[in-house]
Amino acid sequence: MKDEIFSVLQRVGRSFMLPVAVLPIAGILLGIGASFTNPTTIKTYGLEAIFGDGTILGGLLTIMASAGNTIFGNLPIIFAVGVAIGMAKAEREVAALAAMISFFVMHSACNAMLKLNGQILPDGSIAPGVLEGTIASSCGIMSYQMGVFGGIIVGIGVAYLHNKFHKIVLPNALSFFGGSRFVPIISTVVYLFVGIALFFIWPLAQDGIFALGSLVTGTGYIGTLIFGIIKRALIPFGLHHVFYLPFWQTGVGGSMMIDGQLVQGGQNIFFAQLASPNVTHFSADATRYFSGEFIFMIFGLPGAALAMYRCAKPSKKTAAKGLLLSAALTSMLTGITEPIEFSFLFVAPALFGVQVILAGAAYMIAHMLNIAVGLTFSGGLLDLFIFGILQGEAKTNWMYIIPVGIIYFFLYYFIFTWMIKKFDFKTPGREDDDEETKLYTKADYQAKKGAGGASSAQAVEDAKSSMIARGLGSKRNITSVDCCATRLRCSVADSSLVNEKILKATGAVGVIIKGTGVQVIYGPQVAVIKANLETYLETAPDVEPELEAPAEEAKPEAKTEEPKKEAPKAAATHILCSPVAGDVHPITEAPDEAFASKMMGDGFFVYPTEENVYAPADGEVVFVFDTKHAIGMKAADGTEYLLHIGIDTVNLGGKGFEVFVEAGQKVKKGDKLMHFDDAYIKEHAKSDACLVIFTGLQEGQSVTMAKNGEVKALDEVAKF
């Protein structure tokens, strides 16, 4: 049950990231627009001629501020649609449409109930005696002020209905309304009654929200400290979005009357004050939930990075420098801390404990110093400039961040240095001579990724996606794929099939497995990784050969007694035969970087002189690609290999190939597996090279060529 709850919360948390992703651009529009249209700011800096009334720039900035304000004013429906998209498992555009319809229906039903009970008068005004701020306009509909909670209620509910009914089969007479068309219908009916129910339920929920908000805000600086500690402590589990969002966007984070409007949530209060010409100092009580982030994100964690670099072994400092410098700059510029936090989280949890305490204290210190700098996503330099420096010291007290930040830099540096040396923590650059340093820096993989032309780059991305899929237990084991700012968030059917070693070999700095939920931490580039993986999974075979993690480099201790005892077992020789006639070469000469670098496995390839492919050994067909260009095989002795005909032939869509076997079929050596049109492949694909890739070789095994040059089909050409 605990794992199931975690899995659900993970899905909810990752679904928040899509609507949250729109906040930076909205904040920049509002921040810049409001700053340079504020009469006080214009007068202070003598900018009347540039930004004053009637100027072109003044008009443009007014439009920018209005656009940003509109986004913040309509966050409830943005969250409704975004959460529905994030939690839907397929046909997400249908879920988005259903969420938007349901949002309008829910608030319309609630509006009708308020009118029927006299809380909204016939002329549309609010009846006397109704608590101020509890009823407000939501997309033009007067309803209870549910804020983002209302959108989340719609998004989660519609996603549930969508996942349950988007494949429903109705009787023939109603078949037109079956499948995905049924989702908006059932959602409309359900949320009609949800709107009615909320008329009775929401006032109680609202009282609870305000009570919780009062409890948090009423505890003063201690409450801020506790908030900061909890938020940072949830980072490894990926549940921090679920925790902090109510404080940012709902009454849990407090409420305030601004220019006659009741505004709820710390972030909403800040941006409402930003847009108001009447505010002389932003509320530090509202910004207590994020102002402290600038202290440890811009200053503290870079100090930790410097400490880890200084403590690295001399032979590993170059590798550690690349990783830590990149992670530190990411934290400083964007406020994304997970790359650097995960650099020490798994190898030295005690350091993460220090980070949690120091970060929590930073929130409290900022609150105590009345620092009121807002942000859109995270506490990097860009947000500090727009929402702190640009707004002026008088409104934000942003200058206090600098001396406190400098102190934090040295605190992190000295504490991390002492603990790393005292307890010999294996932080980046201090590992034993194993593969972890290579995996943290990802230097080899990034070099491969950057090599070659567009086609080669695509092949490398496909190879990486293939490795990720296998690391997650194969396509069949993956039930959903999503991501947040830094993590690939997946659900799997069987978590025991997840291979962390393979996933780390793809460039991940950490892997978290909880129940059926898997989080793979890649950093800010995760959105591209997710998109490539989704594209790969659309055409990937249902059954995939197992892929062992890349073999470790040879180590001096490999000559110990134990390996010598195992040597006879490893000495068994497997003879490899060519499936086609032609000119045979080692795999390192393959005309594609992904194969030549052995990312898919070791093997060999043949430039064909005949157009038939034969089974090179007794065994079984594991799978046949839908595009017929590749066949997965398993020999009788258990050896797994892939017959891949041509380079980039997946793009041919099956043209030029005729396959004579199917998945699960037993074959004998010499059985005809496939016929291909070599002339067509040469004309329409990158190369006609026929590759034999061994995907399941054990550590220390490699393919050795026994013959080069012209061979006949079924000739012995290599061994391992």
Describe the structure in your own words:
Residues 434-457 and 545-571 have low confidence and may be disordered. The chain is an alpha+beta fold and 720 residues long. The two termini are 47 Å apart. It is 51% helix and 14% strand. It has 28 helices and 22 strands. Strands 17-13-14-15-19-11-10-21 form an 8-stranded antiparallel β-sheet. A 4-stranded antiparallel β-sheet has the order 5-6-8-7.
- Helix fraction bin: 40-55%
Q: What is the overall number of helices?
A: 28
Q: How would you sum up the major sheet?
A: 8 strands, antiparallel
Give the structural class.
alpha+beta
Strand order of the largest sheet: 17-13-14-15-19-11-10-21
For the secondary structure, the number of strands is: 22
User: How much of the polypeptide forms β-strand, as a percent range?
Assistant: 5-15%
**Could you name the ranges where pLDDT drops below 50 across 5 or more consecutive residues?**
434-457, 545-571
- Tell me, what's the shape? globular
Mean pLDDT: 80
Question: Whole-number radius of gyration?
Answer: 30 Å
Q: Between the first and last Cα atoms, what is the distance in angstroms?
A: 47 Å
Detail the topology: elements first, then pairings.
Layout: H1 2-20, H2 23-35, H3 39-44, H4 48-51, H5 56-73, H6 75-87, H7 92-116, E1 135-138, E2 141-144, H8 147-165, H9 182-218, H10 220-233, H11 240-249, E3 255-258, E4 261-264, H12 266-275, H13 284-287, H14 293-310, H15 317-334, H16 338-345, H17 349-368, H18 381-389, H19 393-396, H20 401-423, H21 436-441, H22 443-450, H23 454-471, E5 478-483, E6 487-492, H24 500-505, E7 510-514, E8 517-521, H25 526-539, H26 561-570, E9 575-577, E10 582-586, H27 593-596, E11 602-608, E12 612-614, E13 619-624, E14 630-635, E15 640-647, E16 657-659, E17 666-667, E18 672-676, H28 678-684, E19 687-694, E20 704-705, E21 709-711, E22 716-719
Antiparallel strand pairs: 1-2, 3-4, 5-6, 6-8, 7-8, 9-22, 10-11, 10-21, 11-19, 12-18, 13-14, 13-17, 14-15, 15-19, 16-18, 20-22
Helix pairs in contact: 1-6, 2-5, 6-7, 6-8, 7-8, 7-9, 8-9, 9-10, 10-11, 10-17, 14-15, 14-17, 14-20, 15-16, 17-20, 23-25
